[in-house]
Amino acid sequence: MKANSLFLSLILVGSGAAIAHEAPIHEHAELVPIPAYNTEVKANAKNSLIALTALLETFSPDAKEQVSFNLDSRERHRWSNLPAGRTARPGVSFGEMSDDQRNLLFAFLSASLGEAGYQSVAKVMAAEAYLAADSRSGRMSWSPENYWLSVYGTPSNTGRWAWAFGGHHLALNISMDNGVVTSMSPSFVGSEPARFTLNGIEYDVITDMHEAGYAIYKTLSGEQKQQATLSRFPRSLAVGANKDAVVPVPVGISLKEMNEDQRELALDAIYHWISHQPDENALPRMQEIASQLDQTFFGWYGELSINSRSYFRIQGPSLIIELQGGLGNVGSSADGLGHYHTIYRNPTFDYGEAGRN
After folding, report:
1. What's the domain count of the chain?
2. Which of 333, 326, 328 is nearest to 131 (CA)?
3. What residues pair up with 319 in beta bridges, in sequence order?
4. Phi, psi of 106 (to 5 degrees)
5. Which residue from 37, 214, 56 is spatially nearest to 112, judged by alpha carbons?
6. Which residues span the domain enclosing 111?
7. Are residues 187 and 209 in the same domain?
8. What is the distance between the alpha carbons of residues 211 and 37, in angstroms, rounded to a whole number?
9. 178, 202, 226 — which closes off a domain?
10. What is the pLDDT of residues 240-278, one digit of tens each?
């Protein structure tokens, strides 16, 4: 399989910029809130394959070609957190699916992600629906229809394959090998706004991750805080989009210098990201990370307020987590409601490829 010609045609002649292709929008029921997480179907690679097969069987030959790529396709590494109006995505979007196909896609996501991961999808899409009514929505293409699924390799219970799902403030990259989830690196989750009400439902996105980082910082002694506190607010995430090969120098305080309660708080914070993937990989992943705590560092900048500049990084031999808040609001309707970017990577196993970096 190869990258489809529709995606390749998105480059604007003369400008060098790319925009997301304009998908035909079906008549449909409201996308937000998305269906509830299905706790009766255990999230794992095998059930993910069953759910994906059911979805792909409803696709036309053209849609199957559009969603499918080689495992080593360059498109797999071209994910973005930018709005659909700013960058193109490969695959098939919600806007190109019927209501039945959308429900099958949600069933696939539920069978593929830990409950925390599925809830993050739900909240990010709700934030996008909030922005869809903003005065700048037309130019930015803010819309819950603008989230794309792409599949890499041949889905099966033997061998390697992968899938990606994302759009504005969301980029999930999940790898399988021999019927088991092996990696969810890299994965980006962000939100604008962070705290808001939509159709009578109150949403709170990313702030629990921010609070988990602050929970570590506030327990540090004066000397520990001097080691942990960073001197400046970074311009962007060190290992965000288009930074696959980057492994920054660790910053802050070594967890080796922390007491057991502080180290436990660090593991609690890390689990906010690891729990996005199903238990078959999340549990062994946490054991691996726990075994490396003496080689792990924590750095902090800022405060707990969602509107002030704040940042933390937790970095170990096989882990990089970053959170950046107080980024200001692009949407005028979201002013003062928070704006976050976060990233999770395993630099030794990005895209399920050992030794990639």
Report:
1. 2
2. 333
3. 316
4. -65, -40
5. 37
6. 5-202
7. no
8. 24
9. 202
10. 999 999 999 999 999 999 999 999 999 999 999 999 999
